[in-house]
Each structure stands twice: as C-alpha cells, then as structure tokens.
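To illustrate the input format used throughout this study, we show a single complete record. The first block contains the structure-token representation of the backbone; no residue identities are included at this stage. The design step must infer an amino acid for every position from geometry alone.
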C-alpha cells in the first residue's frame, strides 16, 4: 500500500503565501479602484474568505481593505479635482464611489477640506507646476502616517 504524502505547510510558509495573495489583492485595488469592488469580491479573487482576508490585510498593511481602497480613490479624486473640469459628483463617480455623501465624508477626513473647497483652493496653487510635484505635495496623509509625518516636520 502506498502512502499518500500531503505537503505540510509551516506557519511561516503560509504567511508568505498569504502575503503574496494580499499583494495581488492590493495591486488589484490600485489598478481597478474605479470599479465597483467590495471585500468579498477582492477576497474571492485571491481565494480567501472575506474575514480572513480582512484580518490578514489589516495585519499586513495597518488598515482595512476598505480604508485602503478609499484612500486610493481619494488620491485619484484629488488629481481630478485639481484639473477643475469635473463636478464633485462626476469625480466621485469617476473614482468608483456610488455615494456622494460617503465620498465627501471620507475625502474631508483624509484631506481636511471638502472636495469643493479642495478644488477651489488647489486651482490657483498648482497652476504651472508639473503633475508629479503637485501629486506628491497634495498626497493625503493616512492616520498611520500622520505621526511620522509630524515627526519629520519638527
């Protein structure tokens, strides 16, 4: 009789596999941020349950998948608002937000200004500057980066 030998996965090996899957999921959120995405859909795309995916993502990246996705959307929205040719509603829809209220709330939390106020303030401030410079200078600071950002400024 032959014994069937199953590969034994150590916790370290499983963690490395999970991290590779999480990177794939994060890359998908970066690439498809304007598409309707939810945690269940992204988790299924990498073969994880939604609960395991959310816990693992937060442990690896310090924020929930939803918070990460919304930050990507807000960063893109900031760029679109600086252009000045779209309404706030059009920008919200263009970055994948279905609710204008949720978009405005999250934008204001991350940026410190409402989308409309941001667009008005940035219109004159970025005139003539290269896109790369304006994107870096206007990048939102997530909560976990805020302490490090403030320490650098001191």
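Output of the design step:
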């Amino acid at each position: 009789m032959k014994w069937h030998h199953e590969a034994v996965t150590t916790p370290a090996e499983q963690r490395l596999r999970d991290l590779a899957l999480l990177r794939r999921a994060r890359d998908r959120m970066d690439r498809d941020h304007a598409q309707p995405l939810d945690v269940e859909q992204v988790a299924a795309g990498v073969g994880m349950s939604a609960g395991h995916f959310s816990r693992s993502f937060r442990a690896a990246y310090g924020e929930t998948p939803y918070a990460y996705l919304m930050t990507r959307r807000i960063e893109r929205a900031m760029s679109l608002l600086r252009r000045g040719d779209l309404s706030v509603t059009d920008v919200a829809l263009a970055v994948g937000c279905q609710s204008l209220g949720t978009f405005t709330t999250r934008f204001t939390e991350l940026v410190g200004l409402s989308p409309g106020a941001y667009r008005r303030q940035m219109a004159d401030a970025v005139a003539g500057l290269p896109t790369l410079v304006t994107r870096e200078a206007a990048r939102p600071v997530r909560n976990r980066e805020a302490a490090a950002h403030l320490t650098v400024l001191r």
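Structural context for interpreting the output: The CA atoms of residues 11 and 17 lie 10 Å apart. DSSP finds nine helices and no strands in the chain.
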